[in-house]
Amino acid sequence: MASSAVARETIVSLRHQIAKIEGRLAETFDGEHGDVHLRRQDGLPQGDFLATGAERFDAALGGGLPGAGLTEIHATGMRDAGAAAGFVMGLVHLLVERTSSPLLWVGLSESFREAGYPYPPGIRFLHGIDPSRLLIAQAQKLNDALWIAEQAASIDGFAAILLETRGPSAHLDLTATRRLHRRALDAGRPLFLLRQMAVCEPTAAPFRMVITSAPAGTRYLLGKPLARSIGPPAFLVRITKNRINPPSEFILEWNAHAHAFHERTAADPVVVVPASQHRATAAAAPGTILAFSSPAGSTPAGGQPSGEQHPAHRGHG
């Protein structure tokens, strides 16, 4: 009996060490007294999670997203870059009431060109985050963006860090993500790795979620659905990497007034927009350019529209 207890303690110790090396948040050991959940928070309180308020989603993550360390968010296509960014900003809002520290958004120039820059009025209205607290760092190369994120994770002054990249890269490997994860864990703050057009590759992030936009539901007024209305932004969240529970997926809605997530159930109605009917197809004449159409002579040489050009801003919902 004594040898069995010693062996069990040895196994638990070894699993603890393996979990620490791999950056795991939790593991399960089947002992004589049933399942014993060994939660390792690297010095952080056991209950330090970012609970979204969507109970089943939080339960699948073991209580919510970790309040420190690396979390990977994927947008498989550029059309979902706004949805993924909006989902991350909803998670960031969970930190707003905890601290008054600023937020750092590190991105590549090509990412901002493709997806647009963060839109301050939308961040304030949809997520209740003061845009003055948002700092944006733009880098030309991924190595520079990684260096900025690593250094920022070591500074006591940021509530959260968001690193946005585009496409697969050999520089964003296990070694690089382990450094990011360790820096964020040691500092006790979350670091969100937002990847556009990326494939699932080995990283040190304990959780990976793939975000796509979902059809909007119906808006409610005084507890009743409002006919022919469009509800809050909705996200299809696929948890594809989870060291606590099997992969799963959820449809979450973001309530811009309550600043909270809500899981949509099968009973919730979804808006269905009918196709256009009794309308002739507007066929363009051959050679006609519809975009930037202007009277003859008003377009400068080279076919470019006149006037000052402004960067695009991303949106979601």
List the main descriptive attributes of the protein structure presented here.
single chain; 317 residues; alpha/beta; Rossmann fold; two-stranded antiparallel sheet; globular
What do you see in this structure?
With 317 residues, this protein is of the alpha/beta class. It folds into 3 domains: 14-43, no CATH class; 49-263, P-loop containing nucleotide triphosphate hydrolases (Rossmann fold, 3-Layer(aba) Sandwich); 277-314, no CATH class. Helix content is 26%, strand content 26%. The chain has 7 helices and 15 strands. The strands form 4 sheets. It has a 9-stranded mixed β-sheet, sandwiched between helices. Strands 1-2 form a two-stranded antiparallel sheet. A hairpin with a 4-residue loop joins β14 and β15 (260-263). α6 runs parallel beside α7 (174-187). The chain is globular, with a radius of gyration of 23 Å.
CATH class of the largest domain: Alpha Beta
Number of domains: 3
The dominant shape is: globular
SS class:
alpha/beta
Q: Order of SSEs, N→C?
A: HEEEHEEHEHHEHEHEEEEEEE
**Side-by-side strand order of the widest sheet:** 7-6-8-9-5-10-13-14-15
Spans where pLDDT lies below 50 across 5 or more residues: 25-47, 271-276, 288-307
If helices are DSSP runs of H or I spanning 4 or more residues, what is the number of helices?
7
CATH topology title of the largest domain: Rossmann fold
Which CATH architecture of the largest domain would you pick?
A: 3-Layer(aba) Sandwich
